[in-house]
Amino acid sequence: MRRIDPNNFRVATRATPRQINRQIALSLVRARQPISRADLARWMNMRRGAVSLIVNALIEEGIIFEGATGETSRGRKPKFLFVDTRSRCAVAVDIRPTRTYFMVTDLVGRPLVGITSFPTEREPKRFVSELASRIQHVLSDHEELGECAGVGIVVPGMVDRSGSRVLFAPRLGWHDLSLLEPLEVALGLPVSIENSGRACALAQLWATRGGSATPDDFVFVSVSDGLGVGVIVKGELLRGQHNVAGEFGHMALSIEGPRCACGANGCWEAYVSNLATLSRYFGRDLTEEQPRPIEAAMLTIDDLIALAHSGDAKALGALQSTARYLGLGLASLVNAVDPARIYIGGEIAAAWDLIEVIVRTSLKERTLRPVGRHVEIIVVPASDYPRLKGAAALVAAPSFAAPVVA
Amino acid sequence: MRRIDPNNFRVATRATPRQINRQIALSLVRARQPISRADLARWMNMRRGAVSLIVNALIEEGIIFEGATGETSRGRKPKFLFVDTRSRCAVAVDIRPTRTYFMVTDLVGRPLVGITSFPTEREPKRFVSELASRIQHVLSDHEELGECAGVGIVVPGMVDRSGSRVLFAPRLGWHDLSLLEPLEVALGLPVSIENSGRACALAQLWATRGGSATPDDFVFVSVSDGLGVGVIVKGELLRGQHNVAGEFGHMALSIEGPRCACGANGCWEAYVSNLATLSRYFGRDLTEEQPRPIEAAMLTIDDLIALAHSGDAKALGALQSTARYLGLGLASLVNAVDPARIYIGGEIAAAWDLIEVIVRTSLKERTLRPVGRHVEIIVVPASDYPRLKGAAALVAAPSFAAPVVA
DNA sequence: TAATTTTGTCCATATTTGGGCCAAATGAGA
DNA sequence: TCTCATTTGGCCCAAATATGGACAAAATTA
To answer: Which residue in chain B has the smallest CA separation from A376?
Structure first.
């Protein structure tokens, strides 16, 4: 039950039904490939003739293609349809405080060449030229991948509404930095930029698994240097007025709590970020130390998790405290957006076996009855590289998105 | 950029453009009435012919009607179009812990007869029969109001996804109560039920003011016995998986804070509800006392606000503490959903002159830079009866809502 | 009185879906 | 081996809708 904005609407034209059904057919081919025209028609409750018209137009445009012949028990064999992943590719880039990772994927987000990385150069101009040159090298080294449809970039910070400027990326020291335009000029390719936590949510939204369908309402919580949260509402990323919605990391857990990098006190992030966990391990507030605390350089969160796995009680205790605060914060999040599922990513995913019970217990402790206590929690391991998949989704997803009407 | 759910989509038919444009035209007539066919065509960027077809169909259906002739500087005078508010009405009901209020409105939410109220009977069967009988009396007493299109009801509690059951209304003592079906049977009219805080948001969303347009992303915070929050995202109420999204009242402000009625500690609601303010005034936790604390029976929040206005330092101090916590909680809310505007309702609206500065200061204190610090705050006085208007919107809004496509 | 402007209606046209029909391909059964 | 049923995919026509232009009616202005 959406209100039509009297100042911002789109009237339907004769071409609108075709646009709508075209996107539905394309989405179905994407989700259920390989699929025949006849099957598509059955899924869509349309005549085969109408579907054929759409499909042939999509083939004409090079969006999908006809592949192998399928099998049926009787009758003429179907010609299978696929989303075209041969002639086009996308570049996914994950900018992190210390290193920048990138890979080339096809248009449904499957990696085509392995992940490459290089140290993140913080000086914007030099960073842009280095990234552009590396991308161009990979693309020219692999001309068999076909034309590059675009570059998707995720950053640990806020991005403005147009997606062209990085408003604030504290760990990179970037303030109101125009990143899109110089990169597009340097690369000659369309570029999309998004916050990394939200991109993780996008990666899950657009993931094409076989059986289990992704729900339309879920959240992704990425526990890492910071705390990134992406909220999906009705199959769409929650953006808000300035494209900064979803910053649950800076929701209060205790207004008198420890100081957070954002300047406020007791943000959720200040309790559960990797640095918070390490601080707890060392019994000292590492966030105060600039630019980087010595301990964090010597012992990473991955090391701490390994220690906990090998029986180190202090490391386990630090993680369990984090788990408790993670669960308590998740409860506020669940009360606020009532998601069908919670994805948890970041380095802490590797410690899930150690913290799951605590997270679930403290989540239930604060979750409103009578619902919301059975939220599904899915852990996304780092080996799934959710941020890079999110970056890839930035490029590929728009062509599969629903048209805007009314 | 919405994903099309491969398991739940709607294909467009030949009739789809007409459905879409019909709803747009209807929304425009609603928002800009009185308006002529030619003006409508200009707003919609369509030919007058096509608009005439739609308009005449709407007139045929009795949804809109042709009223007075308008004025132009030259040329033929237009026939103005209006949403039909003569032949149909709606009943809006606001169930509160102590009293239940109701009124009859037209289909754009304007009151037609004054507000009536009666003590809320907590025994469900008796409540249903009393409410039904009172509604039937009013409708039969005012047959000139025309046919009743439905009854909208708001309750201080959670409602299930189908809108038929009250899952939990603590202050009424209602648990998993089927309310819709018995009322529809007793009344012979369609009934809609919604949480009151969210209904307040709906009331603002569907309000038809002259000039100032309501944004598509905003929140309504109703500070009353409890703390009701309604979140509007892209012109639509945030509902979540179980229809309980938006319970920011039970987001933590301090996990070690005072006990909340929900069982958890330090919920925002426990800091800013009317009872919390009164507790602060009396220097004693009134929430613990059951069924009702003596002080709250003797001094209402309205009395406290009057005292503060007349210079009572203790009352003012209690309100100012509430203001501070209200602002701090709003900051979490702003960080989470990045709204364009915040509406604040409830009894505390009457004290806005005393608390505005503190609310704004503490809101800024925790709001992430660089955006979100200029959120517009609009206070909705009780005299606007936002809950009743929300109840009316439950009946009227569906016929103006955008069609679901793709 | 004539010209101009504005509103609302009407008609032919292009686009798109839906239904029906047909050819091709393939396996099952006589 | 031949026939028939089944399935896929393509083609044509009818129905529905927006588009574009023409036109009458109504009112003001020169």
So the answer is: B241
